Amino acid sequence: MKRPPAVRLRHLAVVVPTLDAADRDYGPRLGLSPCGRETVPTEGTRVSFAPIGSSRIEFLEPAGDGALTRFLARRGAGVHHVALEVPDLGAAMMRARAAGLRLIDPAPRPGAQGTRVAFVHPSTTHGLLVELVERPAGDE
User: Fold this and answer.
1) Which of 58, 61, 131, 134 is catalytic?
2) How far is Cα 120 from Cα 135, in angstroms, rounded to an integer?
3) Beta strands in the chain (DSSP E)
4) Counting runs of H as helices and runs of E as strands, what totals does the chain give?
5) Residue 61 known to be catalytic
6) Domains located in the chain, CATH noted
7) pTM higher than the cut 0.90
8) 3-state secondary structure of 106
9) What span, in angstroms and rounded, lies between the C-alpha atoms of 139 and 113?
């Protein structure tokens, strides 16, 4: 059986009430340096990242009245999803479907930092929302 291409942990996403709160609570208190704020209109969120080795924590602040606003209201701040970086998002989505995983996204969509992303429904991953992420071409 052929092994699928290697994946790596891209980031752990945490929903926070505000990015300022993430800067305050995760910055000096835990030695992290959240940086690089950006708005992702397709996701209804503002994001920043705190590098940790070759991975990072992604902080998500809801922007508007979308899914993250509902998540924060229902569950409060906390872990939202785990992102796995894949070399070829289209191939990873096909592999996931063939393995019986339910994808939320029928096709890749734009993500933060110029990435392409697709989400795997938590009903098929033991309750964990998984994001598949492909880096932009030329981004090493």
Assistant:
1) 131
2) 18
3) 8-15, 35-40, 45-52, 55-62, 78-85, 109-110, 116-120, 130-134
4) 3, 8
5) no
6) 8-134 (3.10.180.10)
7) no
8) coil
9) 10
The whole-number pLDDT of residue 28 equals 82
Quote the pLDDT of residue 65: 85
Buried b (16+ CB within 10 A) or exposed e, 23-59: beebeeeeebebeeeeebeebbbbbbbbeeeebbbbb
Query: Do β-strands 8-15 and 55-62 pair in parallel, antiparallel, or remain unpaired?
Result: parallel
Closest CA to 16 of 75, 56, 65: 75
Please, which contacts does 47-55 make with residues 24 or more away whose CB atoms are closer than 8 Å? Answer: 47/19, 47/112, 48/19, 48/22, 48/23, 49/11, 49/112, 49/113, 50/22, 50/26, 54/8, 55/8, 55/9, 55/10, 55/11, 55/12
pLDDT lower than 50: segments of the chain: none
Q: How far apart are CA 87 and CA 5, in angstroms?
A: 7
What does residue 61 show for φ and ψ, rounded to 5 degrees? -110, 120
Distance CA 137, CA 140 (A): 8
Identify the pLDDT of residue 66.
Answer: 87
